[in-house]
Amino acid sequence: MTVKHEAHDRSRDLQVNPVFSREPLRVPRYQLPAGEMEPATAYQVVHDELMLDGNARQNLATFVSTWAEPEARRLMDECAEKNMIDKDEYPQTAELEARCVHMLAHLWHAEDPRHAMGCSTTGSSEAAMLGGLALKRRWQHRRRAEGRPTDRPNLVMGSNVQICWEKFADYFEVEPRYVPMEGDHFHLTPDRAVEWCDENTIGVVAVLGSTFDGSYEPVADICAALDDLQARTGVDVPVHVDGASGAMIAPFLDLDLRWDFRLPRVASINTSGHKYGLVMPGVGWALWRDREALPDDLVFHVNYLGGDMPTFALNFSRPGAQVVAQYYNFLRLGFDGYRRVQQTCRDVATRLSGEIARLGPFELITDGSDIPVFAFRVRDGERRFSVFDVSAALRERGWQAPAYTFPENRTDLAVLRVVVRVDFSHDLADLLLEDLRRALSRLETQDAPRRGAEAGGFAHGAETRNPRRPGRR
């Protein structure tokens, strides 16, 4: 993407203080310097500018890990130069990737974890696109075998899906069918999913942990409704579970929840290793229940150490360090360690949401009891400030809390969202509450809201779908 700068900005060279170098320097902002500079000088110039970034520990918006143990960081440093795609040159890194796939397959109850199909990706967005691409190709193969046209594939999903699904539909020419929110239903429901399916539906996306409010979609009920659809009409629609966050929460905290490969209709699952997988960005994972779910014509086969290593990815060169860190976390924490980490995150989220609800002006949409994420709104009748005012006030203290409106049919609902990660402790939650109380004491003196969605609110993963996208019902 090309960034345009005003003409006067281009002329504003960086002024480097003499304390950082032997002579004062002028460094061009938007073109290569004519010559070299001392490493320490270059470092200081970059370091000083980056001080203006937000504090990652106070980022309540991002789902992405902002902390890692020193040993994990050390391993990542040791593997920084390893290219994940060069499996013949870095065979042990490839082996660790395969072990992670098998561990996830076991965690998600694949019938044969040792032979499950899966791969690492740069993140859950790429993994989701791979899942969607496999759904499309399977549908095309079946339709051709039946002598039927393949020119109008569609994908059914709630309007609360992450923006990567809109990208998938656009890039791979699939009609996106976004089931709108209705009333207090903020995610996909079984009856609505079935209503939007037909013979051209390549699959239904069920989200385990909505970015809008942190809630689980009812995957088992959606699958049951699709089972009934097939029994009545013969239309067979598989399910992809977007478990970007929840697929690393539910296996440890919600053991009785049926959402994974225990459900025969679930064909594939994606998750983000750099979210609740606890790895620094960026690594994701895509898994398929068996070989039939991943058409072989999408898989490239690499020979390494005399064996076959199948690969399926949109990106080519990418770092192996995050895959190594994922394997480290799996070894380091094990099942019980992940359970304790995720339970602590959920405990912080539910306690914090309860305290916010008791402040008075706010009403909870969710409480953090699914993934450790919750959303809350300003109560009806409160006319002095908006969620956008609250977001801006918290930012004055360094807290980045996204404020946004919900999608089509519920654009009247504006909320704040809080993501609790492993590095957000009960103590930090108390500090946030203190700052929120302090902000309220000032906001409650206003006679009307000062800010709206257009005044700097940011959604961070809860972007509203494009209502003008062609093919929308």
Automatic annotation (TrEMBL):
* Catalytic activity, as annotated: L-glutamate + H(+) = 4-aminobutanoate + CO2
Cofactor(s) required for function per UniProt: pyridoxal 5'-phosphate
Annotated GO MF terms: glutamate decarboxylase activity
Where in this protein does the record put region Disordered?
448-473
List its EC numbers: 4.1.1.15
What SUPFAM superfamilies does this protein map onto?
A: PLP-dependent transferases
Tell me the InterPro entries matching this sequence. Glutamate_decarboxylase, PyrdxlP-dep_de-COase, PyrdxlP-dep_Trfase, PyrdxlP-dep_Trfase_major
Q: This protein's superkingdom?
A: Bacteria
Keyword set for this entry? Decarboxylase, Lyase, Pyridoxal phosphate
Pfam families per the UniProt record, alphabetical: Pyridoxal_deC
Q: Say which family it is in.
A: Belongs to the group II decarboxylase family.
| The protein, known as | Glutamate decarboxylase
Annotated organism of origin: Streptomyces fragilis
